[in-house]
Design brief:
By secondary structure, the protein is an alpha/beta fold. 34% of the residues lie in helices and 26% in strands. β2, α2 and β3 form a beta-alpha-beta unit. α2 (47-56) runs parallel beside α3 (80-90) and α5 packs across α10.
Length: 274
């Protein structure tokens, strides 16, 4: 099997047409004609994860976050992105990134987050057609198996998602009942309005900033609504994607490539006690 074959299957699962207009997922670097026997998965293509992939002998590295978010003209190895690229190129390892197309795709980041938490029958909040017969689009909304308090829901998120120093934060009445949940993996404050319109009892997302969260809660109260927010780390909201991705890639490639998941937590934050 060639890298080309693996990339072809990835882009059937996560069509590039689902990307946001500002985003550029797909093959970032590498030789499509190279043999592909080992596929390495990581959330971020950092220097450390690139080195981890290279040392394992990976032929293809699959990440959620792209190596470059903006146009670049120089990638010297003195630059962190250039260093990551140099490590992979020297090792003969291609890099494919699936970003907002993976967020929108069936069994992508949002559906994986729902599965980890126990949100049933999720459907896209912003539908974008179908992929292989399954609905696609950004965000998801679905129901918990049973009604619970906002506080209990937040504790369940803390237990079921990868641990980071940020932990889990909530806004709203901790005792309020929640059953219907809207989710947006990654940084979801641009989706706050859609979450409110969705009729959900709680919105689960990551990377919420002070002012958008504050304005949202004031808007909820002014509308006479009872709704909560649960904020988790960017890393922990997206990492569950690998629950699906590794299983699906192995199945689609018929076991022709060995798959391995990075052991490095790329959440950038650390706890400091003064």
């Amino acid at each position: 099997m060639k890298v080309r074959d693996a990339v072809s299957e990835l882009e059937k699962m996560y069509p590039l047409s689902l990307r946001e207009e500002w985003d550029f997922p797909g093959l970032v670097l590498g030789d499509l004609e190279r043999e592909c026997r080992k596929i390495f998965f990581a959330l971020d293509p950092t220097i450390d994860t690139a080195r981890e992939a290279a040392e394992w002998g990976a032929d293809l590295m699959v990440t959620h976050h792209p190596l470059f978010f903006r146009a670049v003209h120089l990638i010297p190895s003195t630059d962190p992105h250039g260093r990551s690229a140099a490590i992979l190129l020297r090792a003969g390892c291609a890099l494919w990134a699936g970003h907002t197309n993976v967020d929108a795709a069936p069994r992508g980041t949002n559906e994986a987050l729902c599965a980890r938490i126990g949100i049933f029958n999720p459907s896209p909040i912003e539908p974008e057609g179908f992929v292989e017969g399954a609905p696609a689009g950004l965000g998801r909304i679905g129901n918990l198996e049973r009604e619970m308090s906002l506080e209990e829901f937040a504790k369940m998120c803390r237990e079921r998602l990868p641990k980071t120093v940020q932990g889990v934060k909530l806004a709203g009445d901790p005792k309020m009942a929640v059953r219907r949940v809207a989710v947006m993996s990654g940084a979801g404050d641009s989706f706050l309005g859609r979450a409110l319109e969705s009729g959900a009892d709680v919105f689960l997302t990551g990377d919420l900033r002070h002012h958008p969260a504050l304005d949202f809660m004031q808007k909820v109260r002014s509308c006479g609504r009872r709704m909560g927010l649960v904020d988790v780390s960017h890393f922990s909201s997206e990492f569950p994607w690998f629950d699906f991705a590794m299983e699906d890639v192995k199945k689609r490639l018929g076991g022709e490539a060995e798959c391995r998941l990075s052991e490095i937590n790329t959440d950038p934050w650390a706890e400091v006690f003064i």
